[in-house]
Amino acid sequence: MSINKQRYVSAQDVARRAGVSRSAVSRSFTPGASVSAETYAKVMTAAQQLGYQVNDLARGLLANGSRLVGLVVTQPEVGFRANLVAALSQALIQRGSIPVLINTGHTRGAMAAARSILFGHRAEATIVLSGSPPQEFVELAQLNGQPLIVIGRNDDACDSVHIDNNTAARTAARLFAADGRKQVALMGCASATPNIVEREQAFCDEARTLGLDVSTVRGVDSDYAGGLGACQSLFALPPLDWPDAVFCINDLMAFGVIDCARQRGLSVPDDLAVIGFDDIPAAGWDAYSLTTFRQDPVVMAAQALQLLERRQAHPQAPNSKAEVSAPLVRRQSA
């Protein structure tokens, strides 16, 4: 008994159907290649009938390259990172590139695995969305002529996209001071990224300059549970030590702070003003109506792709840094 094994339609199958050579099929699918209108029409008709698709991966390997672009990120499903991954993926697809998500961590072993996958598949570029790539990652990218874009930190070793944390965090402190708040808190995270550190330092510096009493509390992680747990420890202090305003390093932690305050019977913003950072979709929900600073994932993705285009056009150009502003979005929490 014969078994009909399914397989991909090949260029040779198209050539037989169209009555042309294999090389004519290849030329028909190569932009700018020389092929007659008659041959092109025959090939396209046969390809449509057979459901043929060009094997871009094979083409890339033959050309010692590909259209794969690696997105290296920790916890891509969480908070603002999910929005940024979505925006980058869409922008890359529109560009004609193929996004490959590498869900990894900050450890050297995890980064080494990501490096092996991306360079082994001849990725045309790598975009790191979190953490800092080890120096050997950067060096290997440079040796292979592969553009490397880092989002979320100032990095002199490669092209980078960076949010203006300093202006936003200082604005938060000034807003609290203008509202008459006296005892403010910074809600940070124990496993701080460069972005988080910048926000923490800028807020605390500005608040102290304005004469505000500043306390700092950090969650185990920069998520809802981290914000809720850190806020509970904050309100375990005597009431006289409770803050009347909290700046949170991201929206997820701010949601935890708002829920914690309400569990204590406090009113937001009357008893406690809360400002977040990111402006993820849930920030606009009636349950939170969070005043926050907006990171626009579409703008950041566009900046990353501009850096990629520039790097590919000018491989030897000095590294570039693109800074993106984070405008204030006023709602009801502050």
Automatic annotation (TrEMBL):
It comes from the Bacteria. Pfam families: LacI, Peripla_BP_3. SMART domains: HTH_LACI (SM00354). Keywords: DNA-binding, Repressor, Transcription, Transcription regulation. Residues 312-334 are annotated as: Disordered. Residues 9-63 form the HTH lacI-type domain. The keyword Zinc-finger does not apply. Signal peptide: none annotated. GO terms for molecular function: DNA binding. InterPro entries: FHA_dom (IPR000253), HTH_LacI (IPR000843), LacI/GalR-like_sensor (IPR046335), Lambda_DNA-bd_dom_sf (IPR010982), Peripla_BP_I (IPR028082). Residues 149-202 form the FHA domain. SUPFAM superfamilies: lambda repressor-like DNA-binding domains, Periplasmic binding protein-like I. This is LacI family DNA-binding transcriptional regulator.
